[in-house]
Structures are given as structure tokens and as C-alpha cells.
Amino acid sequence: MDLSELERDNTGRCRLNSPVPSVCRKEPCVLGVDEAGRGPVLGPMVYAICYCPLSRLADLEALKVADSKTLSESERHRLFAKMEEDGDFVGWALDMLSPNLISTSMLGRVKYNLNSLSHDTATGLMQYALDQGVKVAQVFVDTVGPPETYQERLQQCFPGVDVTVKAKADALYPVVARDQAVKNWKFVEKLQDLDTDYGSGYPNDPKTKAWLREHVDPVFGFPQFVRFSWRTAQSILEKEAEDVTWEDSQTGDQEGLRRIKSYFSEGPRPRLPHRYFQERGLESATIL
Asked: How does it assemble (predicted)?
């Protein structure tokens, strides 16, 4: 899997995909959606789709690639290479969401929680397959949150597709992509004596916690490899980093700002824009 695009910029979202097999534009296809890396405090989260004609589903199942958690990293890469050889009937696409994108979304002024980010990413990949001409007839999705609610939402988005949402083991494509991304992660920060033995990356792993404590800067915090919105990372910041006090740059009456008593004076009260427009810096257009 070529991750050169991610290596050029791993601060946002990266989409990778295979060519669409011609048979997938002619025959009804089954498509699966799954993720890897939802829980770790380190590294990206990856969502992926894999699809093939219903008539070739038995050939895909014969590879025994469904339960990636039971496979070693080398076995996953071997099976992935085998599936790449079957590119005449198997297609895939994935979105890789960087730790920086995840944390800034969750901690932004307008909150975008992990479930919403996951739902929208999965929906976007399904729509991508349809836009590429894949004749999607059936979809199987690993659940995020209550499966009934998630399935109803997806069925409304794709009324012509038979959607099934349920909990299942991790699929191969997102796990292999995350394996490779974490292993070859390009740190944008200039770190000295960087230790790349992070452990599993999960918050309860002692080796991961030790790596976080070792690589927290008292002023600038963590490298962008870390999901700083995770509670584990926040706890280490509170203990190891310097406190920051935000103060107003000016005191007293500031030019251009009204005194509070002006809001109670005679005459029409000033009408402030709705919070939606204030948070996005939007102003009314005066010239069209």
C-alpha cells in the first residue's frame, strides 16, 4: 500500500483507493465498512471499504481475512498482498484521519464528537463507491453506537441499498493501513532521541503511557502523533506541562466596545448576530 501521500502531509485527512474493477461496475456488489484505531491515544484512525461482486463473494471468503485480530502483522500484510493480486474483482478505499484532525474536531468551539466523525466518514466512503460507479447492492457496517439507530440513518441515506449494521471483528484493510501508517509515521516536529517503541498505543498500556510522559514538552505539549483530546494525554499534560493563564490584553473601556450600561439606555437595543454566525466569523453582506 502506497502511503506517500500521507507521508507528505499527515496533519489532516488522507484518502487512498484502488482502481475500480470493471466487473464491479457491471454486477451487483457487496460492500463492507470497518475501522481500525478508534481507541488508541497514538496514531490515526482509519476507515475503509472493501467491495466485490456478489457472484465472487465465496472467492473472497476463501481467503479467510475477516478476523484480523487473530492474525499477526506479517500475516495481515501477506493476506493483503494476496487480495491486491485479486484486483480484477476486489476494490477498496480508505480514509485515514490524523490524530490532529481527531483532536481539533473534538475540542473545537463547535464540537464534533468521535461518533459523528466516524458516521460521516463511513457515509462518505459509501458515497464515494457509488460515485465511482460501483453497483452497490448490499452493505455491511461495523456499528458505532446503537446499531439500530445507525442502520436507520444509513438506510435513509442510501434507500436503494440493503444495509446491515452489526458488531463484528476488525476487517483487514483498515488494520493493515494503520499498521503501516504507525510504523512509518513522519513526525513534523524536530524531535531529538525519538523512541519509536510506543507499545500498543492504547491508553491503558504502561509502555504507551511511559512514551507519552517522555515526549511531552512543558510548553508545546505533545507531537501531532498524539490525540491530545484523550483523557490519558490530558492528565499527563496537567501533571508534566506548565500552566497557562490567559489574560485580556487590555483593561477598562476598549475602543469600539460598548459600556454595559448602554444596553439599558433609551433607544433601540443593539441586535447581536446569532451565535452560529459569531463563531464562524460570518457577517451580513452589504454589497451583492
From this structure: The RNase H2 complex is a heterotrimer composed of the catalytic subunit RNASEH2A and the non-catalytic subunits RNASEH2B and RNASEH2C.
Would you say the CATH fold of 190-240 matches that of 3-181? no
Residue ranges of alpha helices (H) inside the chain are: 4-8, 57-61, 73-85, 99-107, 114-131, 147-157, 172-183, 206-214, 231-240, 275-279
CATH of domain 190-240: 1.10.10.460
**Taking a C-beta distance cutoff of 8 angstroms, is the pair 27, 134 a contact?**
no
Could you say which of 3.30.420.10, 3.40.50.2000, 3.40.640.10, 2.40.100.20 is the CATH number of the domain covering 3-181? 3.30.420.10
Known binding residue 142? Answer is yes
For 87-121, the DSSP string reads TTT-EEEEEEE-HHHHHHHHHSSS---HHHHHHHH
Q: For residues 282 and 158, what is the distance between their CA atoms, to the nearest angstrom? A: 33
**Nearest alpha-carbon partner for 10 in 35, 32, 43, 33:** 43
Q: Are 167 and 142 in contact (CB under 8 A)?
A: yes
CB 77, CB 54: distance < 8 Å: no
For residues 219 and 189, what is the distance between their CA atoms, to the nearest angstrom?
A: 14
pLDDT tens digits, residue range 181-223? 888 888 888 877 788 888 889 999 999 999 999 999 998 899 9
pTM over 0.90: no
